[in-house]
Amino acid sequence: MMLFYLLFWTCFLLLFTNGEKGFHYGEWNDSQLQPTIQKLMKGYNRYLRPNFNVGPVEIGMSLDIASIDAISEINMDYTATIFLRQRWRDSRLVFPGNESVSLDGRLVSLLWVPDTFIPDSKRSFLHDVTVENRLIRIFSNGTVLYALRITATIACNMDLTKYPMDRQECTLQLESWGYNIQDVQFYWTRGNDSVKGLGTLRLAQYSVESYHTTVSQAVYETGLYPKLVLHFALRRNVLFFILETYVPSTLLVVLSWVSFWISQSSVPARTCIGVTTVLTMTTLMMGARTSLPNANCFIKAIDVYLGICFTFIFGALLEYACAHFCTMQHQTIIDVQRELLREFEESNGTSYLVTSTPKKIKPQTQPKDTTEQETTDQTVMCEGDEPEPERKEKGCGLSSVKQMSRKAASVMTVENPHNIDSHARILFPMAFLLVNVFYWLYYLLF
Ligand SMILES: *[C@@H]1O[C@H](CO)[C@@H](O)[C@H](O)[C@H]1NC(C)=O
Ligand SMILES: *[C@@H]1O[C@H](CO)[C@@H](O)[C@H](O)[C@H]1NC(C)=O
Ligand SMILES: *[C@@H]1O[C@H](CO)[C@@H](O)[C@H](O)[C@H]1NC(C)=O
Ligand SMILES: *[C@@H]1O[C@H](CO)[C@@H](O)[C@H](O)[C@H]1NC(C)=O
Questions:
Q1: Does the predicted model carry a pTM greater than 0.90?
Q2: What is the mean pLDDT for each group of 10 consecutive residues in the chain (446 residues)?
Q3: 55 lines ligand 4 (CB under 6 A)
Q4: Where is the stretch described as Disordered (predicted)?
Q5: 320: Cβ contacts below 8 Å, ≥ 6 apart
Q6: Which residue minimizes the CA distance to atom 5 of ligand 4?
């Protein structure tokens, strides 16, 4: 303690010799100056704030953001190193002259200093290499400047529903721990310009979009406390995600469409493309998920996109299964029809027509030259779906019930299974494009 007093005195000695005589280190006269120092320090009680019983002490703050090291989505916080500067006027420290004196950081323990704290900080520390990083400077008019270098991990609530097209609003709050607004008032020394260094900051995944400062009050059960808030908005650089996740998944979807241009008969080729793309997509989805907390269950924009891509890829695989099944069924139907036609031709078709349509009895009675034409008519009737059910029953059903059941099945299936692929070639890209337009419009504009 004695050492501190000695140091303090030394500083003041320096000051006064400076103001009155200049630098005459060798001619210090303790008996001359000691009473002045004693006078200054005699009334000084570091446990009492300035303006005690007079009014609140006004504390001006300014910040220099040296770095923002880690912005963590998993912990929802960021780590920043800041220079915090506080200035206030302590009338007890007024001394003659117009000079200022910078004191040793350790002399802070002799003076009253504000009890500012960062309410949202999880961990923070004052750097102490090689000495505690504090600065204290006293001006002759009693103004005290007190600067600190702090590294703090500060909570920032993030809304990740639009990840990675998100914009995070974080704050840095400064409050007084024990003095309420009747004792202490905070203000930013230069308004929005009080914060420096944010504009030139280089961050790995983000860029600082904007920042501003506000003055407010913290309301607690014990009263109202002064509070200063620095708001800053971080915009994530989406390019990295576009290259790492969006482009590969889009290309995978396009790759799955290749299957539509491959012949339906080459089962291994098309199955291979389908299954490989589905598996690759699954891997991509897993990879995109590991970089973020999977504990919180909200759906992020990137999950939505990967889900869309997965659906399309899976759809392409199902399309082949469907097309292949229809082709096989169509072929059996064609076979059955061909068989029936042969049977019908063998049985000469005459009895058939007599029982079937009474209207057509007249053409039936005509000479045998037209039999050929009628048989073709009949086949057309049996193949198309145009005839009414009762006519069908009469026309085709009476001869074989088996054919009818086949007929009913063929109504359910697609007319020409090879068209499924040609439709898919148009439908899949169009649908994917449309979904993309809606996706990007929604996430970029709203
Ligand atoms: C200090 O200054 C006072 C008055 O100016 C003088 O009387 C005294 O002798 C000085 N002491 C020394 C040690 O120089
Ligand atoms: C300090 O005061 C002296 C005289 O009292 C004057 O000459 C000098 O210009 C002042 N310096 C500043 C920085 O105001
Ligand atoms: C005290 O002096 C400093 C430096 O000369 C100046 O910046 C500050 O405004 C002064 N404060 C008051 C209350 O006059
Ligand atoms: C600080 O910036 C905010 C947002 O840009 C603005 O609303 C406010 O008026 C500014 N304050 C000052 C003192 O310039």
A1: no
A2: 52 46 43 51 82 92 94 91 95 81 80 94 93 90 93 93 90 95 95 92 90 95 95 93 93 94 90 94 88 69 93 94 87 85 77 46 45 43 42 50 64 68 93 96 90
A3: no
A4: 357-395
A5: 259, 264, 270, 271, 274
A6: 212
Which residues lie across from 102 on neighbouring strands? 137
Q: Do domains 29-237 and 238-349+396-446 have the same CATH topology?
A: no
Q: Is 32 in the pocket of ligand 1 (CB under 6 A)?
A: yes
CATH of domain 238-349+396-446: 1.20.58.390
Domain ranges (residues) in the chain:
29-237, 238-349+396-446
- Tell whether ligand 3 has an atom less than 6 A from the beta carbon of residue 139: yes
Task: Indicate the pairing of strand 167-176 with strand 184-188.
Answer: unpaired
Q: Any idea what DSSP says for residue 104?
A: P
Burial-class residue 270 by CB neighbours within 10 Å (0-12, 13-18, 19+): buried
Per-residue model confidence (pLDDT) at position 22: 39
Residue 277 DSSP SS3:
helix
What is the CB neighbour count within 10 angstroms for residue 348? 10
For a pocket test of ligand 1, which of 29, 33, 34, 36 has the largest count of ligand atoms closer than 8 A to its C-beta? 29
Q: Which ligand is nearest to the CA of 100?
A: 3
Options 2.120.10.30, 1.10.150.130, 2.70.170.10, 2.40.50.840; CATH for 29-237 is 2.70.170.10
pLDDT at 438: 96
Point out the ligand nearest to the CA of residue 19: 2
Q: Whose CA is nearest to atom 11 of ligand 1?
A: 29
The one-letter amino acid code at 317 reads: L
Helices and strands (DSSP H and E) totals, the chain: 12, 12
